[in-house]
Amino acid sequence: MATDYDTPRTADIEDASEQSLEALKARRADAAADLGDDVDPFETELGLPGADLAGEELNVRVLPRQADEFTCTQCYLVHHRSQLVDERRMICRDCAV
Question: Pfam families from the xrefs (predicted)?
Answer without folding.
Answer: DUF4193
